[in-house]
Known about the structure:
The structure holds two protein chains of two kinds. Chain A contains one helix and five strands; from the N terminus they run βββαββ. Chain A has one helix at 28-83; strands spanning 2-4, 10-16, 19-26, 86-89, 92-95. A three-stranded antiparallel β-sheet of chain A has the order 1-2-3, with helices on one face. A two-stranded antiparallel ribbon of chain A has the order 4-5. Chain A is rod-shaped. Helix content of chain B is 72%, strand content 6%. Chain B has helices spanning 9-21, 28-40, 44-62, 67-83, 91-120, 124-154; strands spanning 159-163, 166-171. Chain A binds chain B through residues 48, 52, 55-59, 61-63, 65-66, 68-81, 83-84, 86, 93, 95, 101, and chain B through 1-2, 4-5, 7, 11, 14-15, 18, 22, 38, 44-45, 48, 51-52, 55, 58-59, 62, 91-92, 95-96, 98-99, 102-103, 106, 113, 122-123, 125-126, 129, 133, 136, 140, 144, 147, 150-151, 154, 156-157, 159, 161, 170-171.
Amino acid sequence: MAFLRSDGYWYQSRREGNRVISEYIGSGPFAADLAALSNLTAEMRRHERWEEQRAIDADREIDRQIDEINGLIRMLTAVELMAKGYHTHKGQWRRRRNHAGSS
Amino acid sequence: MPAVVDIPEEIKKLRSLYDAVDCDHPTKEDKWAFQEALEEYPNMWRAVGNMAHNAATNTIYSVNGPESLKLSLVHGWHAIQGELGAEDASPVEKLLIEQVALAWVRHYLVEYAYTDVMHEGGSFKLGNYWEKRLSASQRRLLRACETLARVRKINLQAIQINIANQQVNLSG
């Protein structure tokens, strides 16, 4: 982000790992324009990242809903099969041998 | 943010009870409570079916795409169910068919989003995200198809049970 120091010089700060580095831009109206442009670019990039994150959050919410519904369908399928004498064995549905109505 | 699909309280209760009995040695009390909850809520099949329908609609209309895409997906959602024989299917099969259709809608839209991001030159983070979503939606679709195939292989016989003085045909 670009900023004006009390001595009238424009500086731009950027992050490198854990350090914040300030770089000299200049002074006068041209430096002020450069600083404004730099701030505008940074603001646009921030907005893009925010938009991206919003899209990702909305998308995750859709997946969460679908997984929730799939869980319910899995439960109802299991209830149905158990009521008919099936049980799971190593991930497979198998019919109990002595279940009433089994052939 | 897409609209949230509401899960009725009865289904939430049923699911937590199911989690309690879905283990090697469930307690007698849990089994009774689950049985009672099942009897209290005989229309859960339709309720979950409606939720799947709402989720599909939300998924389709949440996408930032042309109206033609949304309309063709709505058509596809119904067409897939017809092709998989939803009309003559038992309630459990019908639900599984809806699951396949929902997974198909999701996969189609993720593919669309992925292509769009790649075409627009989106960030590495976004590209990476959609690539993972693409694999996940593909897995979900395959799993839904496998479950439907397994249940069909078992070839369930029709049974009738009386739940809360209502005759319910569970499959047929």
